[in-house]
Amino acid sequence: MTLLAWAVAFLLDRLLGDPPHWPHPVRWIGALINLLQNIVRRYCHSDNALRTGGGVMWLVVVGGSWSLAWGVLALANAIHPWFGWCIEVWMIFTTLATRCLADMAREVEKPLREGLLAQSREKLSWIVGRDTRQLQPPQITRAVVETVAENTVDGVIAPLFFLLLGGAPLAMAYKAVNTLDSMVGYKHEKYRAIGMVSAWLDDVANFIPARLSWLLLSIAAWCCRQDARAALRIGFRDRKNHSSPNCAWPEGTVAGALGVRLGGPNDYFGERVDKPWIGDDTRAIEVNDIGRAIQMMWLASTLALALFALVRFVWMGA
Fold it and tell me: Which residues form the signal peptide (predicted)?
């Protein structure tokens, strides 16, 4: 029944994505983070105090997310096993973001193809932290491909990995870790202290999934008739070309598969950040690379599900 729950949740994500008006735990987690961040900032003013407050905030959000998920699942199973199974499917479904990621990438791609740069920049600003107001088509395309590659890890592979390790409650705790990083884990002055713990522990949580993505995306590149050999080579070669210890693994793999260059300098919160380049400039990046990256993301996600389901079956049975 457990593996069936995984498969059903994955299919639901593939079919439905993230309907905007449906209840979603990540929105509740985000609201809790905003509340706690305001409380921490009200009472903590020095960098040391903000770091401590940020650590406490992390414990409350992540621990609370795991505890609530575990409690709800236990209660649902006590009411009826099938009710518990349905709740488990719903929880797993909410931790996956494959369809949502693909849809958001397409939302940027569509106006870009039509030459509507202002609209494309606006849609891009919804999914990246960089300043998008002056970006040109190649830069917009590069940002979308980077986002698809990077979020293949934290949107799908990592939740499935923690699902394997600790079921739906641990997958939900991971989503709390990732949401904390996306909201406060910046190096900008405003978040550097309060988000230090969140950023560091997100790196820890994604350490293994990011390296698995190197292999899974390389296999996906081969299946999609992209350059799998370059994906493996450049994914490993450029793995350190990022301030994060994890992001360059999937980005380098996708860059190698497509024969394009990702990364480079960008503006964040009005400040210029000079990032290393990832990949070789074999050819100019083009808008069709967005679709190619999405295709590899879907296949790598399916491979991750199959791999973790196999490990679960061998380890504990269905």
Answer: none
What's the pLDDT tens digit per position in 231-267? 999 999 999 998 889 999 999 999 999 999 998 877 6
What b/e readout covers 56-79, taking b as 16+ CB neighbours within 10 angstroms? ebbeebbeebbebbbebbeebeee
3-state SS string for the chain: CHHHHHHHHHHHHHHHCCCCCCCCHHHHHHHHHHHHHHHHHHHCCCHHHHHHHHHHHHHHHHHHHHHHHHHHHHHHHHHCHHHHHHHHHHHHHHHCCHHHHHHHHHHHHHHHHCCCHHHHHHHHHCCCCCCCCCCCHHHHHHHHHHHHHHHHHHHHHHHHHHHHHHHHHHHHHHHHHHHHHHHHCCCCCCCCCCCHHHHHHHHHHCHHHHHHHHHHHHHHHHHCCCCHHHHHHHHHHCCCCCCCCCCHHHHHHHHHHHCCCEECCEEECCEEECCCEECCCCCCCCCHHHHHHHHHHHHHHHHHHHHHHHHHHHHHCC
Q: How many residues does the chain have?
A: 318
Residue 20 has a pLDDT of 78
The answer on pLDDT for 36 being more than 90 is: yes
